[in-house]
Each structure stands twice: as structure tokens, then as C-alpha cells.
Amino acid sequence: MTESQLKAYDEPLMVRELNGEVVLTGPGALAAALTPEAAEKTARLMLVAADQALEFRSSGKSPDGVHASQLSPRD
């Protein structure tokens, strides 16, 4: 499956702390557990990506091709 084939859900993930880990659950059987450090970095990367996606949407550009930005934990 490529990134362009992923379904975008319009409901947020459930996030909770469990035994010192951050647990994410959501639609489409999504489930993950992260260390606090990984969760904090992921949260920052998600905010940046969300800002980019909102900016792309508001630009009025037609999604005729694939537009993708990749953010990595090293950014």
C-alpha cells in the first residue's frame, strides 16, 4: 500500500498514558504504543504536517498529482 492509497479519517485518535507509555488507538484498527520521548517528537511532527496540509488545502490547488512532504524524527 502506498501513502496515496491510505484512507484519511476525520476523527482524531484516542491518546492515553498506560504504564509509562503513550498509547494511540483510532479508526481502521490503528493501535500503537510509544515511549514518552517518541510520542513527544511524533506530536511535534504531526503539528508541522497538519499545518502543511491545511496550508495546501487553503491554497486552492487541485490534487491532480501527488503532493507529499516527508518529515522525519531527525528533522
Observed structural traits:
75 residues, alpha+beta, 21% strand
The end-to-end span amounts to: 25 Å
Please provide the count of β strands. Answer: 3
Q: Regions with pLDDT < 50 over 5+ consecutive residues?
A: none
Main pleated sheet: 3 strands, antiparallel
Radius of gyration: 14 Å
The geometry reads as globular
**Element string (H = helix, E = strand):** EEEH
- Number of helical runs? 1
Going across the major beta sheet, what is the strand order? Answer: 1-2-3
The fraction of residues in strands falls at 15-25%
Protein model, in words:
The protein has about 80 residues and is α+β, with helices and mostly antiparallel strands. The protein has a domain at about 15-60. About 30% of the residues lie in helices and about 20% in strands. It is built from 1 helix and 3 strands; from the N terminus they run βββα. A 3-stranded antiparallel beta sheet has the order 1-2-3. Strand 1 (about 15-20) and strand 2 form a beta hairpin. The longest helix is centred in the middle third of the chain and has 23 residues, at about 35-60. The radius of gyration is 14 Å and the shape is globular. The mean pLDDT is about 85.
Short summary of the structure?
The chain has a domain at 13-58.
Helix-strand layout with pairing:
Layout: E1 14-18, E2 21-26, E3 30-34, H1 36-58
